[in-house]
What we know:
Number of domains: 2
Number of strands: 17
CATH superfamily of the largest domain: Acetylglutamate kinase-like
CATH architecture of the largest domain: 3-Layer(aba) Sandwich
Strand content: 15-25%
Bound molecules: aspartic acid
Strand order of the largest sheet: 3-5-2-1-8-10-11-9
Amino acid sequence: MEQKITCKFGGSSLANADQLEKVRSIVEDDPARRYIIVSAPGRDENDSDKVTDHLLNIATEGIHFQEQQKGISPKQSYDSVVAKFTRLINGCGIEGGDLLSDLKNDLNAGGDPDTRIDFLASRGEHYHAKLISRYFQHKGMHARIMLPEDIGLVVSDDFSNAGVLPQSYDNLKKLADLDGIIVIPGFYGITERGDTAVFSRGGSDLTGGEVAYAINADVYENWTDTDGVYQADPNLVSEARVIPRLTYKEIRLLSSKGFDVFHFDAMINCKKRNIPINIRNTNNPSAPGTLIVSERVPEETAVGIARLDDVAYIYLEKDGLGEVIGATKDVLDILKEHSVRTYHYPTDKDDLAVLVDQNDLISNANIIRDEIEQALKPDVLEIIYNLSILSPVGIGMKHNPGILAQAAATLMDENISIEIVDQGPGQISFHFGIQSYYADSALRSLYRSLIANGAPRI
Ligand code: ASP
């Protein structure tokens, strides 16, 4: 049977006309690459902000950039978006006056304030897909545009965080009957009422995953600007290499700083159908990238080390706490009430701790403290800030005793104290909480000990 590849190209892959040409030649290179999902244009040498951010700035009357302490007015954003599309059209040498005037009309349109933000946010993908399919045609390729409204990509009306509704899959499946190259804008769908709603940020990955699932693609290629998923943050560990194969479970455990190359939700349906996801680099197409699969035979113990910063530790101690049924639940309920993200829950007989995202405590640490005091009357209640969690991950660790001991010994040699240890129940990851101050050097040491020198034990 004919191979079917779904490709998603991210904003950085599509930031200017030179990039678009790279994308075109990647698509041309393999006739199976027929389902092309595109993001809005990313940052380029003329503009350090993404088109989607400018669109959100227009939609929110400037609040979007104010929140990021950037002094860019809606008018400047409007001009930037128009200038960007003008540069792309001119750089590609295509006729695009109609696209520019439609774009301007959309940007100037009023509309219901409840739905206008998502409509505007989606315009980057919408017009970029039109431009790209036109560019492909201009270069003699048999390409067509298919918009979410044409193909029936129906989504929930959770604006800015829409979800794909089940009826979409039968609609998307029909894409497999079309010939030629099909260019689809990522990031948005249409609600049952006909409004435009976008997914969460980075959501073009999700469109790609859903199309791959619906047409039962052989591979979902996700083209970005890095050679793949690295063993550790390459900005800190210069020797870190790209991991050739990872399971869905491993990439999920690794997704953190230095690993956030892919929108998690995009994986869920691909996993159900065992569709491999290949993270590739548009700027280095000969590199094989990282392949995410359901199963692999590990040749190593730890495959990568994730890192999470800005973690706080809420610690309480009380004589007899171990006998209080539901004490952990009481603490977690309070945290949930205040929308605090929680990560790990180390406990002992009469002590209990919860590791949380410290950014979520900024405005409400005192209230949370009071509420925990009231609910549990602990003898000790402390909040300790500025921890980092380092997490070696790898399915090869499960059947190899001693990795945790080796990691602990490595940190002992560096005189780094481990504040918290937690082993994942699947035994394919464990987590060390340490003072953030030591995190860079601890990451490098763990990398050397567990990965660079980690003799394969399988
Ligand atoms: N353009 C959207 C964003 O910047 C979606 C995407 O690129 O995946 O979040």
